[in-house]
Write a structure and sequence with these properties.
The chain has 128 residues and is an all-alpha fold. Helix content is 84%, strand content 0%.
Length: 128
C-alpha cells in the first residue's frame, strides 16, 4: 500500500486543479477558448499548469517506487514534501506579477533534486 505517496499525489492533484482553475479564469477574462490569444496572463497561466503537468508525474512515480521498495517513511515524506513544496514555489513564483524569480528558481532546483535523489535511490536499491 502506498499510504505516503497517496498523500502527496492527492495534494499534487489539488495543486493541479488550482492551476487548471486559474487557466479557466484567465480564458474567461481574455475571452479565449482555444490557444492563448496572445494574452500574457493566459500564457503565464497555461505554462504554469503545463509545467506542473510535465514534472509532477515523474516525481510521483519515483516517489511511489521509493515507497514500494521499502524506503524509510521519513525519506518518502522528505521526497514528497520536497516535490510538493517545489511545485508550489515554482507555480507561485512563475504565476505572480511580476515573477518572483527566486521562488521559481528554488522550485525547479528542488524538483530536480527530488527527481535525481529518488532516481538514484531507486536505482541503487534495484541493483544492490
Amino acid at each position: 500500500m502506498l499510504a505516503i505517496t497517496a498523500i502527496y499525489a492527492s495534494l499534487m492533484g489539488l495543486l493541479f486543479i488550482t492551476l487548471s482553475a486559474n487557466v479557466i479564469r484567465c480564458r474567461f477574462k481574455a475571452r479565449v477558448s482555444v490557444g492563448d490569444g496572445g494574452d500574457p496572463a493566459l500564457i503565464k497561466a497555461i505554462r504554469s499548469q503545463a509545467n506542473c503537468a510535465e514534472y509532477a508525474p515523474i516525481g510521483l512515480i519515483l516517489l511511489g517506487i521509493s515507497e514500494i521498495q521499502g524506503a524509510p517513511g521519513w525519506a518518502v515524506h522528505v521526497l514528497g514534501g520536497a516535490l510538493l513544496g517545489a511545485r508550489v514555489l515554482h507555480a507561485y513564483g512563475f504565476g505572480h506579477r511580476p515573477q518572483i524569480v527566486w521562488m521559481r528558481q528554488l522550485g525547479i532546483v528542488l524538483t530536480m533534486a527530488m527527481i535525481v535523489l529518488a532516481a538514484l535511490g531507486n536505482l541503487g536499491h534495484a541493483l544492490i
